[in-house]
């Protein structure tokens, strides 16, 4: 086990009992009179994953001393929202592999994936009503809307080789980091924290989510399919100008820039080996990893406003683990 995996495991062990309660809520709320709804939902959720978004909510609640049952309900809500986005993402991206096995759209077809994703969104909104808190509703409604905007923005940027780092970050802060941010902020709201603490928690989540996605994009050019649980080169096939490619074009020679530009515009995954060589030769991997490290350090700094306890230490471990993430 790598140091990164050990740190993540240690942080998640703090909330293992809480997560079992969340799993019970998930199982209960996946119940539907339509068998295919439960079948598709359980297929994707049972695939595992670190469940980082609900974990963030639980860790922040622990750090700030909230022990009420609403943390289980809202942790399940953010997992449902995340799962819905995965179902829709895989249809849009025509993905075939996630977390080491066939995607839901590959197994059940696109119509079922889209419609079950809709079910999970609507079930999440039913569940968030139980909090009976307009602030909670506001946070989750805004996050869901921003995520949808990020998805559309990413679609608009597909095959656009002129995308710069600012445009790239705008997409991932909307599409990926927003739900991390909302999860952390919800923990502070449930705990009744003062505004500076709430904002620090929200910024922690945003920074952590940004670092997580930047590393994920890096590993598309510096990982392996077995460890990642997805097909390497998918980003290139989908025409996504992620940070490794943006940095490679900034630092490469004219022929290298032209090859990367062509690959993005054409979705030329058959040129993956050549593109990987360019990304490595130009130092784009190091540029990308440093961008992720800067976000991880930003997350770590946000913990200064939190009480010193084992759950805050877990949040620090999670951020630190991203500095060494390899899958």
Quick one: biggest sheet?
Answer: 2 strands, antiparallel
Give the helix tally.
18
CATH homologous superfamily placement:
Farnesyl Diphosphate Synthase
**Secondary-structure element order, N to C:** HHHHHEEHHHHHHHHHHHHH
Indicate the low-confidence ranges by residue numbers: none
Measured by DSSP, the beta-strand proportion falls in under 5%
In the CATH classification, which architecture applies? Answer: Orthogonal Bundle
Distance between the termini: 12 Å
Number of strands: 2
Would you tell me the overall average pLDDT?
Answer: 91
SSE-based structural type: mainly alpha
Can you give a write-up of this model?
This protein has 327 residues and is mostly helical. The chain has one domain: Farnesyl Diphosphate Synthase (Orthogonal Bundle). The protein has 18 helices and two strands. The protein has helices spanning 3-13, 16-29, 35-45, 52-64, 70-93, 104-108, 110-128, 134-157, 165-175, 177-190, 195-219, 225-228, 234-237, 243-251, 254-266, 272-281, 284-302, 310-321, and strands spanning 97-98, 101-102. It has a two-stranded antiparallel ribbon. Strand 1 (97-98) and strand 2 (101-102) form a beta hairpin. Helix 3 packs across helix 7 (110-128). The model has no long low-confidence stretch (mean pLDDT 91). It catalyses: 5 isopentenyl diphosphate + (2E,6E)-farnesyl diphosphate = all-trans-octaprenyl diphosphate + 5 diphosphate. One of its GO terms (molecular function) is all-trans-octaprenyl-diphosphate synthase activity. Its cofactor is Mg(2+). This is Octaprenyl diphosphate synthase. Supplies octaprenyl diphosphate, the precursor for the side chain of the isoprenoid quinones ubiquinone and menaquinone.
């Amino acid at each position: 086990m790598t140091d990164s995996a050990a740190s993540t495991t240690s942080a998640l062990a703090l909330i293992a009992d809480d997560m079992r309660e969340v799993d019970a809520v998930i199982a209960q709320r996946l119940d539907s009179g339509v068998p295919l709804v439960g079948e598709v939902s359980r297929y994707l959720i049972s695939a595992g994953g670190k469940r980082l978004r609900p974990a963030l909510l639980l860790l922040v609640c622990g750090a700030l001393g909230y022990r009420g049952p609403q943390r289980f309900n809202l942790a399940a809500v953010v997992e449902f929202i995340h799962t819905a986005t995965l179902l829709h993402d895989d249809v849009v991206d025509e993905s075939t592999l996630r977390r080491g096995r066939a995607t839901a759209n590959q197994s059940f077809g696109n119509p079922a994936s889209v419609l079950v994703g809709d079910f999970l969104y609507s079930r999440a909104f039913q569940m968030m009503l139980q909090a009976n808190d307009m602030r909670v509703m506001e946070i989750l409604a805004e996050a869901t809307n921003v995520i949808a905007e990020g998805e559309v923005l990413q679609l608009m940027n597909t095959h656009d080789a002129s995308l710069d780092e600012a445009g790239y970050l705008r997409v991932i802060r909307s599409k990926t980091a927003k739900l991390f941010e909302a999860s952390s902020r919800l923990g502070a709201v449930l705990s009744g924290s003062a505004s500076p603490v709430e904002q620090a928690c929200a910024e922690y989540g945003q920074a952590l989510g940004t670092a997580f996605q930047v590393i994920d994009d890096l590993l598309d050019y510096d990982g392996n399919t077995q460890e990642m649980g997805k097909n390497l080169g998918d980003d290139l096939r989908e025409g996504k100008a992620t940070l490794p490619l943006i940095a490679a074009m900034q630092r490469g020679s004219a022929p290298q820039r032209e090859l990367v530009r062509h690959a993005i515009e054409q979705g030329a995954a058959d040129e993956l080996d050549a593109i990987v060589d360019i990304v490595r030769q130009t130092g784009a991997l190091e540029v990308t990893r440093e961008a992720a490290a800067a976000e991880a350090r930003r997350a770590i700094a946000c913990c200064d406003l939190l009480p010193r306890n084992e759950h805050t230490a877990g949040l620090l471990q999670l951020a630190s683990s991203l500095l060494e993430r390899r899958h």
